[in-house]
Specification:
By secondary structure, this protein is α+β, with helices and mostly antiparallel strands. The protein contains eleven helices and 13 strands. Helix 6 crosses helix 8.
Length: 386
C-alpha cells in the first residue's frame, strides 16, 4: 500500500512523512484493563499506515483508502465529541485530545490505509488513533512518550468517539516489540517486554477471525464495565485488581448481585491467568500456556458471557483437532480467537475449524498466524526534522 503516492494524488504534494501502527491480539487478560489489571497483548504485522503533512491554518483533512468517499475536511477549532464522522472520528478525536491537553496542533493532511481487519477484535481503531498520534507528535515536536501517546489515543476513543475502552489496545500498538508480548500493568502503564517467539519454539499462534462483527459501542461493553465498578465499590477497593485471587471465594461471598459476582470472578481469575502465563514464558515452557488459554475462554463464556457460538466453535474444534489451547480474544460478541498449536499441526487444526464452520452453516473464517511484531514507528521521512 503506497500511501505516499496516494497522498500526492489527493493533496498535490508529497507528505512530510509516513508512519505505521499495528493492530494487536491479546494473548491473555481480557476485560482486566479497565479494572487496573494486567494484560499480555502482542502487535500483529497488520498495520494502519498514514502519510501526513502538517498544516498551520486550523484545517484538518482526512482520507482513507479503505472507505468509499472523498476527503473529510474539519476545522480543528470546532471539533466536537460524539459528533459522528464515521471512521474519521478516530483520527479527528486524536487531534481533539491533543488540543484539549494543551498541545499546539494546528491542522494536518492525512491519507490512511490499513490491513488490520475491522470488527475482528484486533484493534483496528487503536491502530488508526496511534498512527495519527505518533505522526502529529513528530510533526509538531510535542515530545510525548509512547505511554502518553497511548493515553491521548484512549481519550480520543473514550471521550470523542464514545467507546469506553481501556488502555491495552493503544499501549500495545504504541509500545510493542518484535518477538515479544507486552506485560502491561494498566494501573500505572509500567510494562515489560516478555520474550515470545512461537516460531522459534516450533509453535504457531493462529488468529481465527469468525467474520462475526462486533460493535462495542452498543452498550454491552459499558454494562460489563459498570458491573465491574459496582463490584469494586461493594468490596471496598479502588479497582478489582486489588482483590487477591487466593481470597476470591471470600470476596464473592460478600457480593449479593449474581451478575456482578460473575464479572468479579472473571476479572480476578484472568489477572491471575496473566501472571501464570508470564511465569510459564519466563520458565521457557510456552506449550503449557495452551490450557491456560482454554481456561480463560471458559471464564469469558460462562462468567463474563461475551462469547458467541462461532467463538465457542473455534475453541472446541481446534482443541479437538489437537491444539494446545484456544480462547476468544478482544471484546467478544464475535471477532477473533487465538489458537496455540504445534506448527506441524497448524494446517490440520485450521482445516478442522474451517470444516466445523462449514458444517454449522457459518461463513468461512479467516485464519492467519499471529507473528509478534513491532509497535508504532516512522517508516518514511525519518531523516526530516519535525
Amino acid at each position: 500500500m503506497n500511501v505516499a503516492t496516494g497522498f500526492q494524488s489527493l493533496y498535490g504534494t508529497a507528505p512530510d512523512g509516513v508512519w505505521a501502527a499495528p493492530g494487536r491480539v491479546n494473548l491473555i487478560g481480557e476485560y482486566t484493563d479497565f479494572n487496573d489489571g494486567f494484560v499480555l497483548p502482542l502487535a500483529l504485522p497488520h498495520s494502519a499506515v498514514a502519510a501526513v503533512s502538517r498544516r498551520d491554518d486550523g484545517v484538518l483533512r482526512l482520507h482513507s483508502a479503505d472507505v468509499d468517499g472523498g476527503i473529510v475536511q474539519l476545522d480543528t477549532d470546532t471539533l466536537e465529541p460524539l459528533s459522528g464522522s464515521g471512521w474519521a472520528a478516530y483520527p479527528a478525536g486524536v487531534v481533539w485530545a491533543l488540543r484539549e491537553a494543551g498541545h499546539p496542533v494546528t491542522g494536518a493532511d492525512l491519507h490512511l490505509a490499513s490491513t488490520v481487519p475491522t470488527g475482528a477484535g484486533l484493534s483496528s481503531s487503536a491502530a488508526l488513533e496511534v498512527v495519527t498520534a505518533l505522526a502529529l507528535n513528530d510533526l509538531f515536536g510535542l515530545g510525548l512518550s509512547r505511554p502518553e501517546l497511548a493515553r491521548i489515543a484512549q481519550r480520543a476513543e473514550n471521550a470523542f468517539v464514545g467507546v469506553p475502552c481501556g488502555i491495552m489496545d493503544q499501549m500495545a500498538s504504541a509500545c510493542a516489540l518484535e518477538g515479544h508480548a507486552l506485560h502491561l500493568d494498566t494501573r500505572d502503564l509500567s510494562y515489560r517486554q516478555v520474550p515470545f517467539d512461537p516460531a522459534a519454539e516450533g509453535l504457531t499462534l493462529l488468529v481465527v477471525d469468525t467474520r462475526v462483527k462486533h460493535a462495542l459501542g452498543d452498550g454491552a461493553y459499558a454494562e460489563r464495565r459498570a458491573g465491574c465498578e459496582a463490584g469494586a465499590r461493594a468490596l471496598g477497593v479502588r479497582a478489582l485488581r486489588e482483590v487477591d485471587a487466593a481470597r476470591l471465594p471470600d470476596a464473592l461471598a460478600r457480593l449479593d448481585d449474581e451478575t456482578v459476582r460473575r464479572y468479579v470472578r472473571h476479572v480476578v481469575s484472568d489477572n491471575a491467568r496473566v501472571e501464570r502465563t508470564i511465569a510459564l514464558l519466563d520458565a521457557g515452557d510456552p506449550r503449557a500456556v495452551g490450557p491456560v488459554l482454554t481456561e480463560g475462554h471458559a471464564s469469558l463464556r460462562d462468567d463474563l458471557r461475551v462469547s458467541c457460538p462461532e467463538l465457542d466453535l473455534v475453541v472446541e474444534a481446534a482443541n479437538a483437532a489437537g491444539a494446545l489451547g484456544a480462547r476468544m480474544t478482544g471484546g467478544g460478541f464475535g471477532g477473533s480467537a487465538v489458537v496455540l498449536v504445534e506448527t506441524d499441526r497448524a494446517e490440520k487444526v485450521a482445516a478442522a475449524v474451517e470444516e466445523a464452520f462449514a458444517a454449522a452453516g457459518h461463513a468461512a473464517p479467516g485464519v492467519f498466524p499471529a507473528v509478534p511484531s513491532a509497535g508504532a514507528r516512522r517508516v518514511r521521512g525519518a531523516e526530516s526534522s519535525p
